[in-house]
Every structure is written in C-alpha cells, then in structure tokens.
Amino acid sequence: MGLCLRAMKFLGLGASLLLLAGCGNASGGSNPGGGSHDAGTDAPVGTPLNDAANCFLVKQGSSGLVLQSTLLMPSGPLAGEVMIDAKGTIACAAASCSNTAGYSAATRVACTDAVVAPGFVNAHDHTTYDLDPPVDHGDIRYQHRNEWRTGADGAMALPSQAAIYDSLSVGAIELRFLVSGVTSIVGVGGTPGL
Questions:
Q1: For residues 172 and 169, what is the distance between their CA atoms, to the nearest angstrom?
Q2: What CA–CA distance (Å, rounded) separates 134 from 117?
Q3: If 0-12 CB within 10 Å is exposed, 13-18 middle and 19+ buried, where does residue 140 land?
Q4: C-alpha distances in angstroms, 175 versus 18, 81, 127?
Q5: Over the stretch 18-36, which tens digit does the pLDDT of each residue have?
Q6: Residue 108 to residues 85, 148, 149, 161, Cα–Cα distance (Å)
Q7: DSSP state letter for 42
Q8: For residue 8, what is the DSSP state?
Q9: 122 and which of 41, 67, 117, 185 could share a cystine (Cβ 3.0–4.6 Å)?
Q10: What is the rounded CA–CA span in Å between residue 10 and residue 131?
C-alpha cells in the first residue's frame, strides 16, 4: 500500500478529500530522489509516489500530514502547505505551517503538479428531509413551492414527510455529500463529528 493510501486510511474520509488532489493515477514523472517503487511507511526521503501530481516524500513522520503544493486560498493561489494534525483536523493552510503544533512530527509530502482546494460547499440544504423518496405527481409542474406544500392556486398538494433527526440517518446523508466532494453544508440538522 503506497504512502497516499496509507495517509488516506490514517486521516479518514473527510481529510482524505484534500489528499486526493495530490494522489493521482500512476503516470510516472520526474521527482527528486529518483526511483520508481511504491513509497511505504519506511520509504526514504525523496521517494516518488508515482502519481500524476509529481508527489514525493519530503520527511517521514510519526503523526499528522503536511502537503506542500499550490493552495487555492481566498486571496488567490499560494505556494504553501496544508497541515492535517494527528486527529485528522486541518490545523493550518498557509505559506508555511512550520509554527503549527505537531509540524515536526508530521509526514511531509510535496506535490509539484497538484492544487489543494477546499471541497464544494452546499450553501442551502434541509438535510433532515434528504431521505424523502420522490413523490409521484404525474405531469404537474408547480410554479411556486406553496402549490405543492399547501395546494395554493388550486394545485394538488403533495404529502410531506416528517423530518429525520436521528444521528445515524443524518450521518448517512452527510456522508453522501462528503463522498460527492461536499465538505461544508449550511442547513438544518447535522451530526457531531462529521
């Protein structure tokens, strides 16, 4: 198992989305340190990861991960680092994270042909209703939400489902968003820890 896969397993699904930008398909490339073998946990510094992003191991650490790459920041692109701490939390995204707690213990990977960007943001959602199945309404096209909600303007009102608040169901909804690249949701509901 390569360093990218080991890091993704360590970090969990959420933080691994950031890492995907630096772990592409195998296409070779020239990386400092030469060689073409897969980088394991005891790989020497400079070992290439044999990916499309030209990633290579800068320093093998014991906890946490630092990705050195081009970062898409609110102010624009920046050559910098993203540090994911031992808990899987993004601890720093800046030109340098060297002053962040845990930096010296983190594994550092540089990706010369990658961009690290935030995930998609779902700016409006009612996640507690996202498990509702589609309701058959034939060929009716509603012009306003009150038509389907209340039967306004003589339209056929549709049955409404009760909101779901149990953490298992809401967690499944949030994981569905996460797998599709959404890392932030502004909406009703939520599950701690996701």
A1: 5
A2: 33
A3: exposed
A4: 16, 26, 11
A5: 444 444 333 333 333 343 3
A6: 12, 54, 53, 48
A7: T
A8: H
A9: 185
A10: 30
Strands (DSSP E) contained in the chain are 55-59, 65-73, 76-84, 90-94, 107-116, 120-126, 182-188
**Cα end-to-end distance, the chain, whole Å:** 26
Residues 6+ apart with CB under 8 A from 4: 19, 22, 23, 49, 51, 55, 109
pTM above 0.85, yes or no: no
pLDDT at 98 over 90: yes
d(C-alpha 92, C-alpha 2), whole Å: 24
CA-CA distance, 37 to 60, in Å (whole number)?
16
R_g of the chain computed on alpha carbons:
22
In the structure encoding, which two tokens stand for residue 3, read together? Answer: 């360093």
Angstrom distance (rounded) from CA 119 to CA 73:
12
